[in-house]
Amino acid sequence: MFNWFRRPSAHNPQSLAPQPQKSEAVSEETQVTESEKSELLNWAKTAYQNIQSDEGETTEEELEGEEQPPETSLETEAETLPAWMRKSERLEVLKETAIETTLEEGKLAFDEDFVWSAKVLAEQGRSAKEVSAEEINWLKRLRQGLGKTRRGLVNQLKAIVGQGPLNQEAVGEIETLLLQADVGVEATDYIIGKLQSKLVAEALPPEEAIAYLKNILRELLDQPQGKQENQALSLEEDHLNIWLLTGVNGAGKTTTIGKLAHLAVKSGYSCMIAAADTFRAAAVEQVKIWGARSGTPVIANQGQNTDPAAVVFDAIAAAQAKKTTLLLVDTAGRLQNKKNLMAELAKIRGIIDKKAPNATVESLLVLDATVGQNGLRQAEVFLEAAKLSGVVLTKLDGSAKGGIALAVAQQLNLPIRFVGAGEGIEDLRPFSSYEFVEALING
Ligand SMILES: Nc1nc2c(ncn2[C@@H]2O[C@H](COP(=O)(O)OP(=O)(O)O)[C@@H](O)[C@H]2O)c(=O)[nH]1
Ligand SMILES: [Mg+2]
């Protein structure tokens, strides 16, 4: 008997009742038969062959494309750079030290990473014929990025769960592990509560317990999305979308802007960057480098310490004239003076509302995952100041605190929109709770 599961406080028949289809899906998912394994292998092989033949076809085009200089970006850089900065040594140094991004991955190998990524894609109902090398590469990076968190959390978690049906002591150990991964008290309580409710109803074999835990985590991560106006964060063409990137210094705002610009351009959208972090000259230089690398025009003001709202005003005018789809706004992240920060962000919002009343505005908080719970405290300031609508989680690659994603969803009630897992231009992609949880638990 597993009476230790029956904690009266956790006994809530409503939330207990598992969704019938879901519980079926769970058991299907966990009983991996030999034939399923070989099916997966075939899926992976087909995907691999397809990607290889695609690469064969595109290599020549890519090479031809590379011979042409990125005209727009060079022009805009020359136009927008003040004369004194055009031959800036600093700029040259920054350029030299910029991270190499081209062909960083090399050729895809049919290795363990590939098979794992293929599995995650196949489980989402994808066809082996339509998946791209990029998706595989990203999943690989995400998996590696969450490696530190996973090693700390999941291996121990599996050891606990693997000992047999969960008892109260084991649940206590899971709780500690979640807190250590910076899942936060609120989200941990929620997760543990859900687990316990389920365990009161039935004893779960280890594999099913893990699958059920994954369901809880996915639901938790997906919840805040439904509360946002722009649920899918889709970009409407022929319409101006303005994304404000906020966050403390060093969180990764400027880098994220560069990666987002690249992603948007690559996906066929027109994009522009407003260099509204006018506090430091170096910040404007840095954003211009990202503009050049992603082939995106950068609107900046000549002088130092100029009014960021004025830059945003000019950028909106330029974006409207060019019928740009996405305008990314880089902002300053000084936190020393909350009042100034709030005033600055409010002024920027005011300009946007006045100059582009029909634009779809997103206010994204850039959060450094390595900072963990401290980041959440900083976030609360921005929550007040910037009418946040979502979060970009950066530096997952260097963090053992990937669990912060769950705390963000639970405590801030904000959807995670993108995750960054490296300093390169390709190292940021839209967030998928499914893939995140797979990389966290089953990587
Ligand atoms: N490892 C890693 N480093 C990142 C990531 N995103 C940004 N960085 C680094 O974090 C530092 C600060 O980034 P920056 O964009 O200048 O931050 P900002 O002050 O918020 O604009 C830079 O050295 C970036 O290369 C990431 O996802 N992974
Ligand atoms: Mg910056």
From TrEMBL:
EC number: 3.6.5.4
Residue ranges with Polar residues bias: 11-33
Key words of the record: Cell membrane, Cytoplasm, GTP-binding, Hydrolase, Membrane, Nucleotide-binding, Receptor
Location of this chain's protein in the cell: Cell membrane; Cytoplasm
List of residues binding GTP: 247-254, 330-334, 394-397
SRP54-type proteins GTP-binding domain sequence ranges: 415-428
PROSITE patterns the record matches: SRP54 (PS00300)
Bilayer disposition of the protein: Peripheral membrane protein
Location of region: Disordered: 1-77
InterPro entries: AAA+_ATPase (IPR003593), P-loop_NTPase (IPR027417), Signal_recog_particl_SRP54_hlx (IPR013822), SR_rcpt_FtsY (IPR004390), SRP/SRP_N (IPR036225), SRP54_GTPase_dom (IPR000897), SRP54_N_sf (IPR042101)
Catalytic activities: GTP + H2O = GDP + phosphate + H(+)
A Pfam family of this chain: SRP54
Bias (Acidic residues): 54-77
Gene Ontology biological process terms in this record: SRP-dependent cotranslational protein targeting to membrane
Example GO molecular function: GTP binding
One annotated Gene Ontology cellular component of this protein: cytoplasm
Similarity field: Belongs to the GTP-binding SRP family. FtsY subfamily.
Chain's role: Involved in targeting and insertion of nascent membrane proteins into the cytoplasmic membrane. Acts as a receptor for the complex formed by the signal recognition particle (SRP) and the ribosome-nascent chain (RNC).
HAMAP family, per the entry: FtsY (MF_00920)
Subunit organization: Part of the signal recognition particle protein translocation system, which is composed of SRP and FtsY.
Protein name: Signal recognition particle receptor FtsY
Species: Gomphosphaeria aponina SAG 52.96 = DSM 107014
